[in-house]
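Still learning. Show one?

>
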Amino acid sequence: MDYRRSYIRDLLASEPPMKASAYGWVKTRRDSKGVSFVQLNDGSCFADLQVVIQEGAIPESELRRVTTGACVRFDGMLVQSPASGQAVELQATTLEVYGDADPASYPMQKKGASFEFLREIAHLRVRGNTFGAVFRVRNELSWATHKFFKDRGFMYVHTPIISASDAEGAGAMFQVTTLDLENVPRVDGKVDYSQDFFGRQAFLTVSGQLNVEAFAQAFTNVYTFGPTFRAENSNTPRHLAEFWMIEPEQAFCDITGNMNLAEDFLKYLVSHVLDHCRADLEFFNQRIEPTVLETLHHVAESPFERITYTDAIKLLEASGEPFEFPVFWGCDLQSEHERYLTEKKIGRPVIVTDYPKEIKAFYMKLNDDERTVRAMDVLAPRIGEIIGGSQREERYDVLVSRMKELSLPEEPYSWYLDLRKYGAAPHSGFGLGLERMMMYVTGMKNIRDVIPFYRVPGSAEF
């Protein structure tokens, strides 16, 4: 059988004996008396295919080129394996080497390497067990996202990467310009942006939410899934300058409907990776975080608790816990507070609603008490906040008032205000950071290890 259009995972599931071909990269090679064993992988699954080469089956001059990292093709017979831990093996009779790998300089050797070192070779780290598993899970989460929304009648919207406004109202943004920075045009001492490429000041977007809201006012159920950018100088294991956000928006939907969608979405993603990435998750559970599988099953099977921010503060104040960050009404919940609620007090995922308006974005719907907004955060065991969202403020006068309170200029948001002037529908939405979700389902501790090529302060390699 010719497997040039198939994967090693298909070989591992095949019924021997049969003629077969296997393509991939060499993980290891070991030689014994009269036989060589090669572990081959093409990235399609966690398991390697063992290739057995009997002495004399392949010329020694060619066999010497089968080193760790080499890209090769073997032809032979797929047979039942007498060795434990594998059902089949390939008894090779021919070899083609597509690309050699110098064993003296190839950095992905069998010996262990730190994640810090592997970040320096991000273009090669994907060939190893850990990062092969990471990016198979990332692929499945991405496909599951599109399937979840497609099956529910949502339209996929491509929102712009370049923006003239800050969706969060107080974010740190990357400026986009073609002006000569050594000879910046000025008028009355200020930069003359009329001479810039867009004729005005422009930035990389921090969120696609405001734009996707416009589509919700025409197509009802929509979502965007794309890169966003934050110029925060935060060099921590939880921050990136470039990351991917999933942001659905629903017209005719209140905060309760928003919470229902968020809970369904999170459970769907978790169930999907449990069903489709079992071997990868078992690896993470064994090598990275021993609670991964238990936590994911718990999330998939548990009803989410729902409490108000005010009640959450009361629970935290009564806890007697020595929190590093003080708890009081009006404080922004920290990870330690969120984990206490989900892990110690309530024991399952929690959705917290109705936050003080001072700690939430300008576009969130103001409650009748005029102190809180219809915000909601989904908190999960082991990580804390994983989804943030709200019912949006659809009342024109209230939105303008909130913007004035926060000293936000109306001009950059004029089009956003138009959505409230012309046939505004009540609507709600939320955001889920793909990398945050990746950390959750894999147990990886550094966000730089769940994105192919990370961007952080001082580093934009590859």
Observations:
- The longest strand covers residues 18-32.
- The chain has two domains: 8-99, 126-158+217-449.
- Residues 76 and 341 are 57 Å apart (CA to CA).
